[in-house]
Inverse folding.
């Protein structure tokens, strides 16, 4: 089953790569073709098929994403079966679960809101994470160190953190797309309206922010059970708190100061930097109580 | 938010005084965002820079040693970082001040907003001026009069509470959904303040002590030995289990708790499963496998002078040697513990050399170990009184005194310098150096766990006691050695449990705060309050809506109008 989980992850990676190509063609291909057609002095312009038929490519991107999500679920299920515990106890497993959760939120948002172009940013992020996973993190199932030997709270705390980070990834995707779109300038006709992107970004923070709070609270509960203290300013927990505070600032500025558009999009991109810092850097670079969850 | 002058008067604040300005500042969202960003930045510094570990805090020597390590890493900058508090951010006064300002801001926000939010929840504004339908930020209008009953029905299906009233030919509706959700932000902010209150109570009231207890031993829990609440915790057994790579798989301790001589609790603790008694919790906070149970007896009187399980918590370098005779037969193999280092000048500056004498085949050899200028270990072997015959590097071989010596590796063996260790009366000194070879965490002797070789050959651990005699006493478990009327016995390797005992009466507050926070966030973000005013007259329908977050309001009005049979015409807002 362990090998099956690795194989399924490779399948997910390949399908994600296909989804990225399809979404890029869908989101930017039509615009590129229009630009080329509008360029004077070029004579007869050859327009590639992928530039002329973006709608089917968008659908292809969606199907590829669903298939990648399915492959990732298979990978996680096989991992769970092989290890006998929730499959997010080290960086390889966490990254696999994280990418799966990002895709899950993405397909749900795509169904709720309609626009597929968000996949042109979210799926490359998933692809990059999966590529980093297979490149840098060992895939074998290792026994858990004593501090992690609590399946229930491991499932709850880390699982909720995975979901929180995944939801916040969508806000990053929407914010990047907003900035690419140039706000009201609407550089890319295929991309959703700036207001919709702003709303998607907010909605995903509205999901991710409470989940992050819950994940931190569950971590505090675990800390109290394992070490007798809720909070110890461990780098990982502090970094997660800082991330939460940054998103809290975003919500305050949006709700009370009316921050919309480019300003809040830039803030969301920076906030996602904090997510990645908490996720990668603290485990791999900074020594702390969460270092056992590194590679 | 405007500061109501009546409340200001009740609080005794002058309309233009500095307290009023401070109150305004603390309630300002911009201020809250700034102070939150500052606290986040300060915390981030604490994540990126190494922080003084908890075990060194309050121990001047440990602090100095830790700071010396940081100087090696950061150079002279370390001292500046230390003086600024950047190497102990979370205990720095400025960090506490930042947190205090954040809590003050949060509290001011809750206090300042509470009356208004309460009034808005229990006495919402049922009617807005007609002009509001033309100026509201979120509004929709239709030239067609909506079917009032259909609109009301659509609102109720969407969980709105609806109030209808007529003024001549015009019907007004007020619809309110989840009015209590408006308190969500207050609950969330109140929870943040409560967390800090809980932390303050926890740090002021909590009891916390760390006990390192060997198997078979007991320790009092409270500092006041004669306290009637005193407890004695006895460690019956300690188990450490490791895999072949040395990764820990399990730490477990069997505890018995006594109060006033009576056994009151017997339990097993693991890392994620503490034991509780009378509000105190006993955590498996540590495991230490290098303990030596040692007894010293006076042979004249028969009295046991000394019986301790000693934690060999330091490490000493010791060469693992192999000696072969001329026929190639192994005549010695093992780790050789060394004595206290002596500073000598070997021609390239002073170095610390540790010595040991070794008898092989009836012949004495003197061994010396030091590190060369590049930090590589060097082992000298001398077969006589003069200079060494050979100097061998790690992994090397050489002939000395008729034997071929091989330095297989240089190990680190557990050791302890024990002050007050009983020595025979005619021996000088005030202690003994104990080292143990052939030991491993979780040996079959000391634990139920698997074996992880750390040093030495398979077999029993060997305890070396340097001090009672000219030569080290080498003892295997159960063995004794007699020196000048004293009998030294190594009773065996023992394991220690690091037991953390805590009592924290802020638990309830913490979980109340968590509940408030989650409820507040869920109310504010997932079940937000929505208020809708409708004016339905012969010339058309106008809707105006308020709610936070301000997303999807126009879409909702459009949907409601469609259900009420009035085609929509957007006049305000963005998300149609």
């Amino acid at each position: 089953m362990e090998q099956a989980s690795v194989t399924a992850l490779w399948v997910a990676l390949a399908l994600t790569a296909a989804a990225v190509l399809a979404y890029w063609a869908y989101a930017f291909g039509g615009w590129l073709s229009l630009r080329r057609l509008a360029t004077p002095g070029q004579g007869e312009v050859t327009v590639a098929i992928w530039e002329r038929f973006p709608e089917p490519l968008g659908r292809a991107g969606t199907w590829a994403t669903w298939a990648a999500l399915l492959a990732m679920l298979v990978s996680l299920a096989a991992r769970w079966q092989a290890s006998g515990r929730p499959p997010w106890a080290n960086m390889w497993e966490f990254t696999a679960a994280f990418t799966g959760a990002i895709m899950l939120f993405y397909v749900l948002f795509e169904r709720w809101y309609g626009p597929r172009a968000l996949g042109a940013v979210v799926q490359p992020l998933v692809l990059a994470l999966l590529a980093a996973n297979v490149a840098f993190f060992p895939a074998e199932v290792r026994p858990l160190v004593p501090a992690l030997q609590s399946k229930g709270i491991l499932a709850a705390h880390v699982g909720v953190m995975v979901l929180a980070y995944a939801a916040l990834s969508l806000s990053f995707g929407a914010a990047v797309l907003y900035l690419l779109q140039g706000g009201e300038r609407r550089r890319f006709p295929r991309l959703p309206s700036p207001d919709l992107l702003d709303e998607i970004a907010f909605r995903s923070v509205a999901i991710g922010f409470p989940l992050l709070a819950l994940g931190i609270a569950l971590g505090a509960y675990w800390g109290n059970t394992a070490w007798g203290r809720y909070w110890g300013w461990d780098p990982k927990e502090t970094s997660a708190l800082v991330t939460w505070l940054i998103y809290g600032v975003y919500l305050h500025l949006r709700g009370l100061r009316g921050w919309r558009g480019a300003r809040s999009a830039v803030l969301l991109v920076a906030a996602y930097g904090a997510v990645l810092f908490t996720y990668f850097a603290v485990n791999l670079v900074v020594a702390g109580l969460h270092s056992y969850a590194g590679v | 938010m405007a500061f109501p002058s009546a409340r200001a008067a009740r609080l005794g604040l002058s309309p233009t005084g500095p307290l009023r300005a401070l109150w305004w500042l603390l309630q300002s969202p911009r201020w809250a965002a700034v102070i939150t960003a500052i606290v986040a930045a300060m915390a981030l510094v604490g994540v990126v820079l190494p922080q003084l570990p908890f075990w060194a805090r309050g121990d001047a020597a440990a602090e100095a040693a830790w700071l010396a390590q940081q100087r090696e890493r950061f150079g002279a900058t370390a001292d500046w970082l230390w003086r600024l508090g950047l190497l102990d951010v979370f205990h720095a006064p400025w960090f506490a001040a930042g947190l205090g300002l954040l809590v003050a801001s949060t509290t001011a926000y809750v206090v300042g907003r509470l009356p208004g939010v309460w009034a808005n929840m229990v006495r919402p504004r049922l009617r807005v001026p007609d002009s509001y339908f033309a100026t509201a930020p979120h509004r929709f209008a239709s030239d067609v009069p909506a079917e009032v009953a259909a609109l009301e029905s659509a609102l109720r299906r969407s969980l709105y509470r609806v109030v209808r009233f007529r003024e001549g030919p015009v019907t007004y509706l007020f619809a309110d959904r989840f009015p209590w959700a408006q308190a969500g932000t207050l609950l969330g902010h109140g929870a943040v303040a409560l967390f800090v209150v809980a932390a303050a109570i926890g740090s002021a009231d909590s009891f916390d002590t760390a006990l390192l207890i060997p198997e078979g031993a007991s320790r009092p829990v409270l500092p006041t030995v004669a306290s009637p609440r005193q407890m004695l915790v006895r460690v019956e057994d300690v188990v450490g289990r490791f895999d072949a790579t040395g990764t820990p798989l399990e730490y477990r301790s069997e505890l018995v708790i006594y109060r006033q001589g009576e056994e009151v609790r017997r339990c097993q603790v693991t890392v994620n499963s503490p034991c509780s008694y009378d509000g105190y919790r006993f955590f498996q906070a540590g495991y230490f496998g290098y303990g030596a149970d040692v007894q010293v007896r006076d042979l004249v009187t028969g009295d046991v002078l000394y019986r301790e399980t000693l934690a060999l918590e330091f490490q000493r370098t010791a060469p693992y040697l192999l000696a072969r005779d001329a026929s190639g037969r192994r005549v010695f193999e093992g780790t050789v513990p060394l004595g206290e280092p002596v500073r000598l000048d070997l021609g390239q500056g002073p170095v610390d050399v540790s010595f040991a004498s070794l008898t092989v085949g009836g012949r004495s050899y003197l061994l010396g170990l030091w590190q060369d200028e590049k930090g590589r270990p060097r082992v000298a072997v001398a077969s006589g009184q003069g200079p060494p015959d050979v100097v061998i590097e790690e992994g090397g071989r050489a002939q000395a005194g008729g034997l071929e010596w091989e330095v297989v590796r240089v190990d680190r063996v557990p050791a302890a310098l024990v002050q007050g260790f009983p020595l025979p009366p005619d021996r000088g000194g005030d202690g003994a150096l104990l080292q143990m070879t052939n030991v491993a965490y979780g040996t079959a002797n000391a634990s139920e766990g698997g074996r992880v070789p750390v040093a030495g050959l398979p077999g029993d651990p060997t305890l070396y006691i340097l001090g009672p005699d000219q030569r080290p006493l080498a003892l295997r478990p159960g063995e004794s050695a007699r020196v000048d009327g004293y009998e030294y016995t190594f009773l065996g390797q023992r394991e220690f449990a690091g037991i953390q005992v805590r009592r924290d009466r802020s638990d309830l507050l913490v979980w109340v705060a968590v509940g408030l926070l989650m409820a507040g966030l869920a109310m504010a973000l997932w079940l937000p309050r929505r208020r809708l005013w409708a004016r339905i007259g012969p010339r058309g329908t106008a809707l105006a809506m308020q709610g936070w977050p301000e997303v999807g309001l126009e879409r909702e009005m459009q949907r409601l109008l469609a259900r009420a049979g009035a085609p929509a015409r957007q006049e305000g807002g963005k998300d149609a």
Q: What stands out?
A: Chain A is about 75% helix and 0% strand. The two ends of chain A are 20 Å apart (CA to CA). Chain A has one domain: 2-27+55-284. Residues 236 and 290 of chain A are 6 Å apart (CA to CA).
